[in-house]
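Hi all, posting the design record for the shared folder.

TITLE: backbone redesign
STEP: 1 of 1
STRUCTURE INPUT:
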């Protein structure tokens, strides 16, 4: 194992996520992969062990309590893929107080395979996880090609893990003052804004306990074809916005319409994850270097689409154009320094946000560009990656999370929903209605959800 700078203190976001982990609602995000072609189980486990050496946070656990909690390296743990015959078999998701924050399950279907990677968010964010998967695919491909030991395909500096937290204290005085003013301006409005929860799906209001967690070999999904994405991109460009702004706006309206039909509120807060990596952290191994930008909007049936998109565009401008830390960045630093405040936030009786919309972009273009491709799809040894989907965590009072990826010329939106209040049928219906919105927006007939809950 390569030398890693452990033990390490938890960053504010890591501490928040670690403390926020709870039974039934682990702070775990999941990536689902569908592969066409056979996988060699032995070589895959060997590649996994080698790739973990380059990404040691995925082999670390949190030891100690309170302010003394530290990341420590679990040298005795060896990761492997857990192959399951039944995708409905319950599984335990990774608890970083007991084990490293990565669990991988697989299922074979004839000569094809499905893999699901469950990452504890305190250990690794979406960018780090996708980078890890790219390195794993490259390592496995080298072993399949006959190499005795895989070599890293890019430079990774493990020592930078000790400086992974992007705080405003590292910025210039002008940046600190500007961000402080922005935070102060948002504070009274943000505190007064009490976001609505996603209304329970019909027939779910009386549910009291979540079912077991499952492997999620197939997530419900809305899939948009390349021409539909091009139409959305043109609409966003015409409004001076990004495609991600448009996706956020559609999600805001989808939540509003769902709540209007099911007796919920109209004060919607969606969290947009933001990559907080500095330019000098491009080669930092997988870790949690993320922030969250709250998008608050009061919407109803009379709210115009263009107005919603404009508000989202303006709300995300500081993060997109100025590369400012997210508004929640300093909040987490304050809370981590004052444990009673963190305890109060975690026990807050109301929803802190309505849901999350997280966009991983196009992994094959940005993170896996060093891998061979066929017809725009990544080759993994002798197999081909046919599809990818992912979903962020859900919280008890924040019942919906949506994950966006672009792959193989298509854009897919998958998700998780609260098992108590929404459930798998409710999530499928929500995504179906979201697909109908995109169908109307692009004037195309086939933005329909595919797949079924795993």
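Okay, here is what came back for every position:
SEQUENCE:
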């Amino acid at each position: 194992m390569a030398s890693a700078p452990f033990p390490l203190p938890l960053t504010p976001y890591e501490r928040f996520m670690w403390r926020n982990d709870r039974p039934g609602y682990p702070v775990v995000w999941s990536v689902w992969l569908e592969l066409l072609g056979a996988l060699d189980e032995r070589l895959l486990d060997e590649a996994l062990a080698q790739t973990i050496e380059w990404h040691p946070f995925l082999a670390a656990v949190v030891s100690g309590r309170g302010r003394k909690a530290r990341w420590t390296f679990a040298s005795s743990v060896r990761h492997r893929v857990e192959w399951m015959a039944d995708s409905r078999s319950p599984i335990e998701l990774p608890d970083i107080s007991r084990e490293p924050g990565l669990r991988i399950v697989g299922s074979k279907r004839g000569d094809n395979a499905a893999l699901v990677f469950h990452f504890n968010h305190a250990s690794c964010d979406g960018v780090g996880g996708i980078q890890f998967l790219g390195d794993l695919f490259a390592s496995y491909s080298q072993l399949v090609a006959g190499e005795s030991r895989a070599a890293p395909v890019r430079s990774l500096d493990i020592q930078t893990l000790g400086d992974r937290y992007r705080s405003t204290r590292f910025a210039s005085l002008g940046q600190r003052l500007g961000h402080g003013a922005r935070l102060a301006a948002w504070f009274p409005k943000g505190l007064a804004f009490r976001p609505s929860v996603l209304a329970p799906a019909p027939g779910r209001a009386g549910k009291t306990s979540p079912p077991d967690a499952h492997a999620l070999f197939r997530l419900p999904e809305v899939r948009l074809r390349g021409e539909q994405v091009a139409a959305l991109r043109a609409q966003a460009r015409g409004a001076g916005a990004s495609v991600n702004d448009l996706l956020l706006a559609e999600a805001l309206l989808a939540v509003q319409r769902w709540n209007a039909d099911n007796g919920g509120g109209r004060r919607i807060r969606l969290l947009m994850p933001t990559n907080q990596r500095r330019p000098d952290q491009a080669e930092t191994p997988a870790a949690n270097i993320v922030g969250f930008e709250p998008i608050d909007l009061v919407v109803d049936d009379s709210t115009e689409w263009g107005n919603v998109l404009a508000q989202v565009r303006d709300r995300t401008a500081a993060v997109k154009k100025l590369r400012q830390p997210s508004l929640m960045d300093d909040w987490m630093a304050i809370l981590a320094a004052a444990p009673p405040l963190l305890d109060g936030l975690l026990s807050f009786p109301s929803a802190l946000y309505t849901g999350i919309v997280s966009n991983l972009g196009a992994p094959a273009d940005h993170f896996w560009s060093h891998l061979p491709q066929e017809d725009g799809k990544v080759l993994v040894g002798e197999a081909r990656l046919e599809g990818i989907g992912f979903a962020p965590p859900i919280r008890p009072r924040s019942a919906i999370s949506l994950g966006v990826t672009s792959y193989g010329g298509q854009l897919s939106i998958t998700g998780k929903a609260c098992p108590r209040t929404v459930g798998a049928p409710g999530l499928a219906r929500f995504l179906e209605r979201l697909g109908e919105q995109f169908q109307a927006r692009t004037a195309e007939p086939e933005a329909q959800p595919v797949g079924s809950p795993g």
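COMMENT: The chain is about 35% helix and 20% strand.
Let me know if anyone wants the other runs.
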